[in-house]
Specification:
2 domains, six-stranded mixed sheet, alpha/beta, Leucine Aminopeptidase, subunit E, domain 1, about 250 residues, elongated
């Protein structure tokens, strides 16, 4: 998935699907959503009302723009209530979950390019961007290595919208961190989803070596005698039933 940062307003961005986050307790929509609705002659407001959209976590509603916006569809996703107390204001999980739900739905609609705007709600530009990338990446994860027919619906590009240019540097760092964490998590999922006869101790040691070389890290691999010396009796005992070293 290609990642990009745009400082343009949501109503100006070209994408297959434009994702907008909205809180459940907003007295009025954020200015960015209002501008999109105005360009659509109130279509978004009418659609949200007819579908009884309340902004609950993960709730989704979308409309076709009919050429009135550069984006083909606008999808609104619920973020739940604003995080008002100190303890929860820095919690990025609602954004992460909303991004996962929205991007997954957009992908299932056939979108290859997706642009996402999430209101700040106490999160730093970096944390907000990181949460969006992690949610989008992990929410669309699929393990299809052994499938004869792979799903053709794939998100090719994700654009994070940060209209405030002063926040662009922080958001860009969030994109980088989000990619690192998401790729690492997907690698772990791939290893877990592989059959045990593929991901052997030897295989894991080799993969760890590749990661260490790529990242300039030091790697120490424990052999059977090392494990025994460290008192890892149960681990060594289980390995005795295999032709593979522990």
């Amino acid at each position: 998935m290609d990642l990009a940062l745009e400082t343009r307003k949501p109503a100006e961005v070209r994408a297959d699907v434009l994702v907008l986050g909205r809180h459940a307790d907003d007295r009025r929509p954020p200015a960015e959503i209002t501008a999109v609705d105005r360009a659509l002659d109130g279509l978004l407001t009418r659609a949200l009302a007819s579908e009884k959209f309340e902004g609950k976590p993960g709730q989704i509603s979308y409309v076709h723009t009919g050429g009135k916006l550069p984006a083909e569809r606008v999808l609104v996703v619920g973020l739940g209530p604003h995080r008002r107390d100190r303890r929860s204001r820095g919690d990025a999980e609602p954004v992460r979950r909303a991004a996962a739900a929205a991007v997954r739905r957009a992908r299932d609609l056939g979108a290859a390019s997706i642009a996402v705007f999430m209101p700040p709600d106490g999160l730093s530009p970096r944390d907000r961007a990181q949460a969006v990338v992690e949610g989008a990446w992990l929410g669309t994860y699929r393990f299809e290595k052994y499938l004869k027919e792979k799903n053709s619906k794939v998100v090719r590009s994700l654009t994070l919208l940060e209209p405030d240019r002063r926040s662009a540097a922080g958001a860009r760092e969030g994109l980088r961190l989000g990619r690192v964490w998401a790729e690492a998590t997907c690698l772990t999922r791939d290893l877990v989803n592989e059959p045990a006869n593929v991901v052997t101790p030897t295989f894991l040691a080799g993969r760890a070596g590749e990661i260490a070389r790529e990242g300039g890290l030091t790697l120490k691999i424990l052999e059977r005698d090392d494990c025994a010396t460290m008192g890892m009796g149960a681990y060594v005992g289980v390995a005795q039933g295999s032709q593979e070293p522990p």
